[in-house]
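Page header: ASSEMBLY MODEL / four components / 408 residues total.
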Amino acid sequence: MRVLIADDHELMRDALVMFLQNAGGIDASTAGSVDEACALIEKDAPFDLVMLDFNMPGMNGLAGLTRTMNIGGGQRVALISGEATRDIAERALGVGAAGFIPKSIPAKSMVNAVRFMATGEQYAPVEFMTASDAPSSNPLAAKLSRREMQMLKGLTEGKTNKEIARSLNIQEPTVKLHMKNLYRKIGAANRTRAALIAREAGLF
Amino acid sequence: MRVLIADDHELMRDALVMFLQNAGGIDASTAGSVDEACALIEKDAPFDLVMLDFNMPGMNGLAGLTRTMNIGGGQRVALISGEATRDIAERALGVGAAGFIPKSIPAKSMVNAVRFMATGEQYAPVEFMTASDAPSSNPLAAKLSRREMQMLKGLTEGKTNKEIARSLNIQEPTVKLHMKNLYRKIGAANRTRAALIAREAGLF
DNA sequence: TAGAGAACTATCCCTTGGTATAGGTTATTC
DNA sequence: GAATAACCTATACCAAGGGATAGTTCTCTA
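Prediction written out in full:
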């Protein structure tokens, strides 16, 4: 079985290769970027499975995934990520990814998942996909009301108050009020800092 | 030699443990958060070296690092990270970390670094620490002038135009002009989006 | 030496953001 | 039934952000 691993962190590449080699019967190649991976596929196809790190130069969200799926000889492509949200995992599976592997799973499960995907199945860990949006899990989110969370979401999309108001069917003054309360709660001096704080907290 | 590895990704924990065990002479324990790591240190000290993932629940920037250094029996603590900047690495070493290990290094180098640090030395990979702010390495940064990069830096700190002007000893209108050009170059509609784009590109 | 590009300053003008204040409804809790 | 909290609307005011335009200096390069 031939597997191609693309991750910009050599430490992670080395780790994945070692786990797969040790499991036996798997021949692993590596690449450090999407470009490199695509070049390898063109040159050295076919691979049974390609694993792409979500946070890697050239990925551009899911663009790198679809690009990798569309070249060469019909290889199956899975996403692997430490930070990606359930939303991203679902979108990846939606566009036809072979699977989604969070880095929070044990190495043994990863190896099993690779074998599973290589047989043509679609893989995603149940506990990850069914995890609720867990307001309690995040110290920041716990303090905020429903509306304030929606404000924060709008902020992390770079929207203006007016746009946020429109998308929620409320008036702009209302948005401003929620914003003010939000800033106070999370200790932000302005919307840009609020957006950065939200991102650093792993929200959205 | 006893090493404690703290990372919220089980896949990474498994990998580090395996590499260290295989190298021989190293006894590795693991934790999934800063709290867990501290509890283990209190209970099961002494460790020769503690390795903390920078992006982990409870780290709070470098707060988790200093906390881990200050408890228990004088263990040495190193930072490990895939995304951290040189600036962060320098600050970590500045407050007395045993070393900084980027995930972009090979597994073999990681093992050598661990042995090195356990002997009391301070470790940081030369190529990482001497890398210039690398305008060429980042597709985004390559397009920007020196001033525009400074604008972007100010943005990612949530500063106002006035604050940025003061810190660079230029006038506010000048900052606005650079901002306008910056937005055009990176395709941002406003400062918040610009800040988010910069962060996503791994800048600052 | 002419031209291009980066950087700086400036002014005008409009939009957006942020605070203060005030008054209202609804649901939950004590 | 009163208190609390979340949510909604509104008005007014000032600060900050952002576009347009115009001109200066400097440096590097064709």
